[in-house]
């Protein structure tokens, strides 16, 4: 019995000192050791503090890492807040209101870091102050209804943009229904958009020229310009000069034929040149005085300009003997007064005028010249080709 009890006590003593067991009063270093401290919030602003000549189109962005934004205020020089929004995750803020030229803006941002401590950033930046701003206009204007040959023109009347690509990138066309078309620079000061084919009748068009703040290389865009207009019914005027007549087609069907006297066949300088033109303007009474040809104080009714080369559609009762019989004008399409009035009343600015049969072609230097170019040539005149 004594020997058995001694053996049990010996075994029990060995198990109490089992290898790997922690001594009494000591903690397990794996389960209760210290952890790294949480990081502080870091706020970053773009533009950076004290930035100069910031482009007005550059977004203002305040962002934070290792924390959440709690407040962002950006003020203009008058102390008015610049509109903006914080993202749902509270990691960044961006302006929704554009900046002005030559202004100093201040910002103050606050955040709470992962370390549960507040952080703050304050600063200011200044926007670019252009030496020159360049204005733009758009045609057709709001609310107009124009013919199916009408191009869209964005004109820079005071100065031509040096960087045409930058200007063209800011131009946007929206149409209902969708229409294929392209921009082309028809002069140093003007970009036109025309469809590949005539506009579909009834098309709704919206032009957005977001030019404010665009750097042209020789100045900055002064303001955005927009326009919304409509395309009317499809009417095309056709003049085959040997026929001594002008034909009116509405939606593809011949609706009227008017006798005419066109430019002199014997003198190419006085032909009515071949080409697809458009009605550019309408005047109840036009002044056709031209001292070079001995015309002084010559007024004609129901005048419609079709080029800046000098051609019009108009009445000319003084040439009544030749209307419908011979081509004797100096390039214009002469009509009887009643026919000229009827045509004037049913024609829209932008209606195409297709001239064929002459000895010469309309020079592409004449405005409006958009339809004188092939589609391949037209698209090649884009600055973004």
From TrEMBL:
InterPro entries, alphabetized: Big_10, LD-transpeptidase, LD_TPept_cat_dom, Transpep_catalytic_dom
Domain L,D-TPase catalytic span(s) in chain numbering: 235-356
Functional pathway: Cell wall biogenesis; peptidoglycan biosynthesis
Region span, Disordered: 17-39
Pfam family, one: YkuD
Active site: 314, 332
Xref: Gene3D superfamilies: 2.60.40.3710, 2.60.40.3780, L,D-transpeptidase catalytic domain-like
Superkingdom: Bacteria
Annotated protein name in UniProt: Lipoprotein-anchoring transpeptidase ErfK/SrfK
Organism listed in the record: Kibdelosporangium banguiense
């Amino acid at each position: 019995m004594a020997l058995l009890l001694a053996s049990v006590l010996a075994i029990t003593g060995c198990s109490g000192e089992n290898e790997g067991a922690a001594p009494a009063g000591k903690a397990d270093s794996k389960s209760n050791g210290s952890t790294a401290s949480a990081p502080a919030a870091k706020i970053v602003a773009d533009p950076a503090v004290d930035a100069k000549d910031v482009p007005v189109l550059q977004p203002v962005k305040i962002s934070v890492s290792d924390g959440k934004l709690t407040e962002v205020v950006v003020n203009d020089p008058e102390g008015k807040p610049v509109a903006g929004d914080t993202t749902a995750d509270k990691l960044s803020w961006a302006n929704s209101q554009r900046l002005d030229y030559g202004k100093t803006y201040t910002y103050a941002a606050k955040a709470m870091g992962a370390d549960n401590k507040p952080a703050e950033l304050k600063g200011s930046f200044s926007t670019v102050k252009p030496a020159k701003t360049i204005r733009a206009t758009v045609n057709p204007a709001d609310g107009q209804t124009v013919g199916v040959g009408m191009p869209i023109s964005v004109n820079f009347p005071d100065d031509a943009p040096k960087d045409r690509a930058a200007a063209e990138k800011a131009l946007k066309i929206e149409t209902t229904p969708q229409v294929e078309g392209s921009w082309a620079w028809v002069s140093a000061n003007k970009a036109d958009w025309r469809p590949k084919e005539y506009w579909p009748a009834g098309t709704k068009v919206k032009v957005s020229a977001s030019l404010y703040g665009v750097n042209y290389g020789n100045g900055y865009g002064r303001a955005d310009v927009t326009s919304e207009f409509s395309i009317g019914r499809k009417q095309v005027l056709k003049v085959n000069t040997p026929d001594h007549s002008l034909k009116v087609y509405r939606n593809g069907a011949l609706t009227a034929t008017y006798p005419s006297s066109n430019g002199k066949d014997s003198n190419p300088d006085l032909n009515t040149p071949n080409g697809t033109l458009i009605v550019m303007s309408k005047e109840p009474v036009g002044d056709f005085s031209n001292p070079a040809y001995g015309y002084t104080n010559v007024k004609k009714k129901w005048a419609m300009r079709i080029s800046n080369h000098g051609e019009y559609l108009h009445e000319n009762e003084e040439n009544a003997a030749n209307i419908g019989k011979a081509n004797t004008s100096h390039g214009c399409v002469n009509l009887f007064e009643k026919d000229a009035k009827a045509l004037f009343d049913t024609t829209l600015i932008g209606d195409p005028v297709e001239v064929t049969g002459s000895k010469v072609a309309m020079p592409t230097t004449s405005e409006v010249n958009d339809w004188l170019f092939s589609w391949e040539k037209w698209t090649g005149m884009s600055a973004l080709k």
